[in-house]
Amino acid sequence: MTSRKELETRPPQVRSDGPHPALPSWSHAMIYVLYFIVFLICIYTARHYWFTLNRLFAFQRHPYIDIDTASWPLVTVLVAAHNEEKVISNILSALMTVRYPEGQMLVIPVNDRSTDGTRAIIDEFVERFPGRIQPFHRAGGKGGKAAALKDAMELVKTEVILIFDADYIPGAGLIKQLVAPFFDPEVGGVMGRVVPLNVGTNLLTRLLDLERTGGYQVDQQARMNLRLVPQHGGTVAGVRLSALREIGGWNDQSLTEDTDLTYRLLLHGWKTVYQNRSECYEEVPETWPVRIKQIMRWAKGHNQAMVTYGLRLLLGRHRATLRERIDGALLLGVYAMAPVTLLGWALALAVFFQGVTPLHGVIALFSLTAYAALGNLAAFFEIAAAARLDGTRKRICLLPFLILGFAVSIFSVSRAALSQISDLVTGAELHWDKTERFRKVL
Amino acid sequence: MNSSLAVAALILFVSSMLVLPLIPAFLELRLKSDASPLKVVQQHAGEIRHFANSFRTYIQVLEPTLQQCVASGATASGMLPDGVEYLALGQCDDSQTLPIQQPGAICPVTIAAGSDLVVPPETTFLRDVYAGGRFRGGDNNSYRAILGEKDVHLGRSSRVTRWVHAVGEFSAEHDCKLSGRISSDSCIRLQGACNFLRLNAPQIETGHVMPGENSTRPHSEDNANAGSGTVQRFLYDGDFEVHANEVVTGNIVARGKLHIGSGASIRGSVKSVSDMVLGAGVSVQGSLISGEQMLVGPDCAVNGPIIAERVLHISAGTRCGSFQHPTTVSAPRIEVEEGVVVFGTLWAREHGEVVASP
Fold this sequence. Notes:
The complex is a heterodimer. By secondary structure, chain A is an alpha/beta fold.
């Protein structure tokens, strides 16, 4: 039994005055790493709030959206298609009815080694609309969208190129809206807004709808407003041929050719602009395994771009402004933050069970419980604000379920990062996974 | 109360507090009351004549009545299918039969005229007006919307709150306030001190335009497709100046302010992230884009779109676009001096005004 005297002489179990000299050095290191992680998460938190408040209260930039009359240039529309028999006819039909001057638009379906009925459907459209569709059937070569687009460039003769994935359904005015920014000679890339079509299918599609809303309505538009780095999404998007040539064409080594393109354009002094009102329907994954596969590919591609361009963007000699360098670097780090947050979580627990409370008062409480344990809650605020801007109401009720989506993402993205490190060590090649479609064949 | 009951009660209470915020989420997941895709405009494509076309379709039911009125020279009244009252006029001078007794009166019905229509001054039209022929409005009138199958002319100090479309020419006397969309299949002419937001016509003129000036445009043979061909790009990180009478072949991008000297010729497009000033007689084959304010000097000729993200001032004698290559001029705030011609669209998001040239 412990005597009263022993209790009085025993040192206190919980310390609240920072790293204690009695702790082993690895504990100190752990606490300093934790400080750094909390600092990083705080930066991302501030960034989310800045974007959201900008979107809610500041001047909104839509400089090109009013260009409705012009001598519209020749444009090539590339439709990336790999085993897309479920959806390819929808996009080709939509493209044949868009309002763009006759003879000024050529559609090139890039049929990348499809083994289903994609080729037959494309060829049927070519027959129905002579001179308006030029198919590019690719039977072999390297896999992946970037490799397919790279090969298809031999058919492209126009200065303006638009790119769609096959599951998208462009509206009548979308082509003009996406072409309009190219009248600005500083613009190298254009990105429109992606809107999920199969929202009501299940919980996953509803969560993805909320995520997309936040990502486009707030994140991308705020970057546009603040002249930061709107991200090229590789679909509902455009690129200037001369800019693409200047940066060396499509990078078929990249898993996310869109992120890769964004940064190479930026480093060469070209701007990517975002058009929030150029909206286009897409199909989002309806099952968790497909979603996990998709986000793992995005994470790997993004991390690949971070390693390739991160330091050069921050410290190199190029045309990007200081704010573009900082925002660009933060954007490159978004997927790396998932394993970092997990590490912070583990460290917070470890430090706690060592009986140490490393920070003081309220900040310690907030940082370690909210940020390090649950991640960046500012993203939830951003999504709620985005849903409000969209004029939707009831779907905001689903916000608490985003914790689930967040948990799945954080573990999937961390797994992707670990697998990427392992691939790096073993020398395994990155490979591109196509996202499965769910639309019923018409 | 024994201790195990207290623990159970505590667990129950904490669990219910945890579940409580999730109840709306579960309800929404089950009821799917807001689960449809966000509405994306798929078809009308922001067409300026959208409302005019809809109105034409809407009043098609009156066509037989209007034909009878024109043939008989009579007037008719009744209700449209949605319960809106109308007055169909057969003759130009039938406007005297409008339900308006004195100046300052309010006309509460939809007016449809089978032929020309002249309306008295000092009148407020709460409903849309249709003229099968020419439309001529008196001074100080207020309109909701007008569709004219031929020319539409608004008297001094008139107001339009929604839209006007003229198949023929649209003209507005001094001091008119034109909110909403104004379009013509032929020409729009605005006199001094007119306010506007969105205008579209093959040709838009402000004030008095010297005849024959349209043919003096430099580089009128050039294609205005800034994005249609690959041209060299000159990128400057700070302020930049193109000297007077200098000829530049290629696109110019200045990350600071840009000044283009008088008489200079740019065979390409021009962008400044900050303010842009064009001297007199500058010609630009492509587009003009400014991230802040833009001042276009007198007698300039610009083929491509002109976009300023804050304020745009266009001086007298300037030509924007051409018949062959119509274009868009857009900014939140636009001041256009009298004597300017725009071929295509002139779009002020917040406020546009025709001002006297100094």
